Amino acid sequence: MIKVAQISKSYQRKLVLDNISLEVPKGQIFGLLGPNGAGKTTLIRMLNRMLSPDAGQIYFEDQLLNEKHLQQIGYLPEERGLYKTMEVRAHLLFLAQLRGLSKQEASQHVDHWLVHFEIQDWQNKRIAALSKGMAQKVQFIAALVHQPKLLILDEPLSGFDPLNVELIMNEIKALKEKGTTIILSTHNMKSVDEICDHAALLHQGQLLALDSVIKLRQAHAKGRIFVRFKGNMLSFANALWTDFTLLEQKEPTEGVFECILQLRGTSTVNDLMRSLQAQVAVEHLELLLPSMQEIFIDLITQKDKQHD
Amino acid sequence: MTKFLLLTKRELIERLSQKGFWYMLVLGPLVLLLSLFAILKAADQGKQELKVLIADPGQIMGHRLMAQEEKNVHYYFLDDYLEIKEFDKANAYQEFDVLVELNEKVLNNKKCFVFYRDQLSPDIRIQLKFQVEKRIEELIAAQHSSLTEAAFRQIKQGFIFAFRDIKDPKNEAKEANAWAGFVMGSFILFFVGLYGMTIFRATVREKSNRIVEVLLASIRPEQLMLSKIAGIGIVALLQLLGWALILTLGLLFLQQTVFLDIFDPSNWGQATPQRLNPLSSLVFEQLNLSFLFVHFLLFFIASFLFYGALFAVLGARSGADADGQQFLLPLIFLVAFGIVAGIYAVYFPNTTLAAILSYLPFSSPVLAFITLAKGASIVDYTSILLSLLVLLACALILLKLAGRWYKQSILKF
Q1: A160 and A264 fall within a common domain
Q2: Least confident among A4-13, A225-234, B192-201, B378-387
Q3: Among A19, B75, B197, B320, which one is least packed by beta carbons within 10 Å?
Q4: Residue B277, pLDDT above cutoff 90
Q5: Domain tally, chain A
Q6: Which of B6, B213, B215 lies closest to A97 in CB terms?
Q7: B393 in contact with chain A, both atoms CB, cutoff 8 A
Q8: pLDDT tens column, A51-65
Q9: Residue among A81, A84, A94 whose CB faces B6 most closely
């Protein structure tokens, strides 16, 4: 859907994006991750043609990104505002028409989303009269009211209460089901684990990681294994021998233990299975994958250490 | 183009939905009309009904003044002395507003005192002096010479030394008209400054509440800036047209009702001094208002584009309203510079500096109107059109540059 090819950008001689290349697959949710100042907002602004790269190109559906494509892109910025004196419906109509919808189309779409988010009773209220959460909903609607093929969401969950976070998360999933490609820039790593298919990690203008979320987690797996078994803890510990380290253990019910082990040396999960089979009854065994949060912290920390 | 119109329309609707616009639309010209009315009225106090008592113990005047007396000033004679205190306190004299005290030797000492209850306008003073003086002259001519009254006046007439500018020997460059042009030109700068501030504030607000990030995902920054200038410019123009309409109707109303007789030449006695109020004469007769209005619109549009771009860039560079105040000051000075240049041009219209100022975009609107109001010659008019073109060209160049500056600044939070 979107292809970024060797993009670079500097502000007053400070390199904020350094030769970045990535591809956002169609119909998927792409997590754009990175600490503050990583260059995410600059990249997002380029995807919206608000900024031009110093070098490199951006392609939208295999065409060089141009002004016409903006009608197929929806954008919810992190720092978002609305005209406080405008009424909800009028404001949404205005933004929908700015995105290229006719007045009639805009009207139909706005009505649909007002009903969908159950804020139709507020359509004639001024933005200034809305609560923060309500205004966030209006902003979310504004980003997708023109049914974009690509939706760029920069911190879409900030400012929402847990109920509305759930609502927005479900909405993002539903949009994906309908074929919308979504770029999600967030610091909420739980949401990345939960809904992102792909992710890119930016740090100081450089791309530290880019892959599908599952591959990233597998690639950064640290050889930790979760085991639930019935039997004797002493027998279990003896079976581990020197190839595995017991990190955690608990006994949620009598005679049933749950443990986290760390693989050591060249030992594998199969080695562990073989060692345990004769000693305890294994009910569940799983290679633990790191969360995106752990990967994020590890990669950034490593990079900073290299830099130092 | 559709997006540009959409943004312009939004800007227009927002401004028009503000109460301030409508208050300003109605109250602005009303205040101006009231001020004008007060000035005209003050300058035309002679229209009030006055009763003047002439105490003439020597019966010198013979109960007679000039043949054509003023309709609103009524003269009465008293063939006796009258003490000031008595005139002031006695019931019999309360109906009189003015006491003219003529002593018996007035033909020799040519001195009389005029006592008034309320201040008399300059116009009334001139009338009183004229009536009494002319009658005295008539009597002196008859008493001391065989000259006719006309011949006597001719002899009495002082010698006039008329100082004239060598470049304007016929004194065509009317100063009052020049001031009227100055006021109109200053009006342009006033409105441009006023609505330029609106552009500034609107830009700062969009930037500080971050709606600009949403807007710029759909349109180019230059488009956003231009639509803002256009939308607010149309509002300013609507307000100006509203002011022009209300002022025109108001002036017509004043002309047809309150100041009716001062426009009727039959009401001016031939022997009376020139009484036509110079201000009303200027406003109602000497200025070609429709001609000036067309040029007013042209200069207003060009000036608004020029200054609007500057205000928009300042707004884009400012992080907050307070930040921008320091940037605004030089811009306000530039607006003030145009007005000061106008004052200079009224006094020294033919200097090289005035010629240069007439082409500077900051001062050309005011200077052009000073020339236009005086009645521009073909040469002058060509210069004015040229200054308009210079202003327009500068505005377009500035808009182009401002578009870039605006783009660079608007996303820096």
Answers
A1: no
A2: B378-387
A3: B320
A4: no
A5: 2
A6: B6
A7: no
A8: 889 999 999 999 999
A9: A94
Is the residue at A52 inside a domain?
yes
**Is A308 contained in some domain?**
no
The pTM assigned to this predicted structure is 0.72
Instruction: Judge if A131 and A248 occupy the same domain.
Output: no
Q: Are A32 and A185 in contact (CB under 8 A)?
A: yes
Q: Do B254 and B40 form a contact (C-beta atoms < 8 A)?
A: yes
Residue A307 lies in a domain: no
**Strands A14-24, A150-154: pairing kind:** unpaired
In chain B, % of residues over pLDDT 90: 14
Residue A296 domain-assigned? no
Spatial separation of the C-alpha atoms in residues B200 and B195, rounded to whole Å: 9
Per-residue model confidence (pLDDT) at position B258: 64
Q: Which residues of A touch B214 (CB under 8 A)?
A: 75, 77, 80-82, 95, 139, 142
Q: Does A22 have pLDDT greater than 90? A: yes
Report ipTM (2 d.p.).
0.79
The CATH number that applies at residue A168 is 3.40.50.300
| A19: Cβ contacts below 8 Å, ≥ 6 apart | A6, A7, A8, A55, A56
Looking at domain B47-156, its CATH class is alpha beta
With CB atoms and an 8 Å threshold, state whether A79 touches B217: no
- Smallest CA-to-CA distance from A290 within A209, A230, A232 is with A209
Last residue of a domain, one of A218, A235, A261: A218
Task: Measure the CA angle with vertex B37, ends B31 and B43; round to 5°.
Answer: 140
Residues B73, B275 contacting (CB under 8 angstroms): no
Element (H, E) at B301: helix B289-317
Q: Phi, psi (5° rounding) for residue A18?
A: -120, 95
Better pLDDT: B198 or B142: B198
Asked whether the beta carbons of A78 and A131 are under 8 A apart, the reply is: no
Q: Which residues contact A110 (CB under 8 A, 6 or more apart)?
A: A89, A92, A93, A96, A141, A145
Residue of B80, B217, B138 whose CA lies nearest to A77: B217
